[in-house]
Design goal:
alpha+beta, five-stranded mixed beta sheet, 11 strands, 16% strand, globular
């Protein structure tokens, strides 16, 4: 609704409209209503690719401690509609079939071996907890190329597991290596169905799976058409929230905001107070505060909407100026940092060679979840991606507290010797190092001899 449409409404009418908004109820459910314990939240595993690969491999293994035998395996293989024509009897396990599931075999996320007197097959699964991209399919094909000479007696099949509802059209009919696609959304639906049917009989397993289903929900996020519901909520109720925001800045501000909520909606008072605090955060203001901090450290930045960009220090020496850049993304719910490579760089061959090198020699093998090496849907390749400031810091606090916490987080990221920022800069500076340039700055042998005299 246009903001001007609220001018003719009383504040009580505006509040009735707010609490009746489905997006407000969703906000209340997610951020104010007490959340249940979830082990994945405590361990901060919900967003890590390798953790999801571990669980998927466990579910696919009929001998796993989950107690569901082949049920998830058969669903997964059937759902993939493997273009390599995996025979139905192989899917069903006819002929005394043996199944082996491996993790990180020759860098493949999950490898399934299906062997029986009806045939020997290998299914290589590339797991990407992100939307499907052409680069992901290339990775899946690279897996098949590595596996073929090592398992020449098997038929090989490739699967991409991504958060996209559908794969990229035509990839399943590729002339050389067709790759099937399975959606994490469908995985979530299947797990939920199995929970409802009581497939996980063991009490401890069932509790684990229920918590994992919540983690999957956060992995896939809301439907694409609803990803910006929070910003829409703020826009549609801007007049009321701006009025309440003014009261929040006064003495006994929270109490005054609570008094604005009539008794009929008293159970939403905490939610309204938090929403008004979120409204006051203003990502643009935080972006400008951080920009001043970066400027004081000699880092020149540019602003593009909610993004703050600056060039990787080693990019010019690598021959690709402004083709590798840092990006800070300021949103209401989080502030994230990434290192991206635009696909439209002039020196495309140099960029292609660089990305291939980084794939083969990861910047940090221990934290692969932060180094996705994937392309988004807008022509940018993400080498590194990390949530720098999370919702628990940005929400429900005063603007001064949030600003202080954000500036501290950015400072630590920039200067800590063990931070990803330091590690990445050192990595690319090593790639850009030229011995001949270094030699030119060293004293010559004759000069050293003369100095010794």
């Amino acid at each position: 609704m246009d903001r001007k449409a609220t001018d003719a409404m009383t504040r009580d009418e505006e509040l009735d409209r707010l609490v009746g908004d489905s997006r407000f109820l969703r906000y209340h459910e997610k951020y104010v209503k007490p959340r249940e314990f979830n082990a994945f939240d405590v361990l901060r595993y919900a967003e890590y690719e390798i953790r999801h690969s571990n669980v998927i491999a466990w579910l696919l293994d009929p001998a796993g401690t989950h107690g569901i035998d082949r049920r998830f395996l058969e669903w997964f293989v059937d759902r993939a509609r493997l273009p390599g024509e995996l025979p139905p009897e192989i899917v069903r396990g006819d002929g005394g079939q043996t199944v082996r599931v491996a993790r990180e075999l020759y860098y493949v996320d999950v490898t399934i071996f299906l062997e029986s007197d009806r045939g020997r097959h290998i299914v290589a699964v590339e797991n990407k907890p992100s939307p499907a991209s052409p680069e992901h399919y290339e990775q899946a094909r690279a897996h098949l190329e590595r596996l073929r000479p090592k398992y020449s007696g098997h038929r090989h099949h490739g699967v991409l597991l991504s958060t996209s509802r559908k794969g990229i059209e035509g990839e399943d009919r590729h002339p050389e290596d067709p790759i099937a696609h399975v959606s994490w959304r469908d995985v979530g639906v299947q797990i939920k169905t199995m929970i409802g049917e009581g497939a996980f009989g063991d009490r401890n397993v069932a509790a684990f799976i229920r918590q994992y289903l919540v983690a999957v929900g956060r992995l896939i996020g809301p439907e694409e058409s609803d990803t910006d519901y929070f910003r829409q909520l703020l826009d549609d109720h801007h007049s009321l929230l701006k009025h309440m925001s003014g009261a929040l800045g006064e003495e006994r501000g929270e109490h005054k905001v609570r008094e604005m909520v009539p008794d009929g909606h008293a159970h939403y008072r905490d939610t309204v107070v938090r929403l008004v605090k979120d409204f006051r955060q203003e990502p643009g203001r935080l972006r400008d505060e951080v920009r001043d901090l970066l400027t004081s450290r000699g880092i020149e930045t540019t602003i593009r909407g909610p993004w703050l960009n600056w060039e990787l220090e080693a990019a010019p020496a690598l021959g690709i100026p402004w083709c590798i850049r840092w990006v800070l993304d300021f949103q209401y719910r989080q502030i994230s940092v990434c290192l991206e490579v635009p696909s439209h760089c002039r020196n495309k061959e140099a960029v292609k060679d660089l990305l291939a090198f980084v794939r083969e020699r990861p910047i940090d093998r221990r934290r692969r979840e932060r180094y996705p090496m994937r392309a988004d849907g807008y022509g940018y390749y993400h080498v590194f991606n990390h949530e720098l400031v999370a919702d628990e810091i940005l929400s429900g606090k005063s603007a001064e507290e949030v600003t202080e916490a954000v500036l501290h987080a950015v400072t630590e990221f920039l200067k800590a010797e063990d931070s990803d920022y330091t590690r990445i800069n050192d990595y690319f500076q090593c790639l850009a190092f030229r011995p001949e340039a270094a030699v030119a700055t060293e004293p010559t042998a004759a000069a050293v001899a003369e100095e010794a005299k």
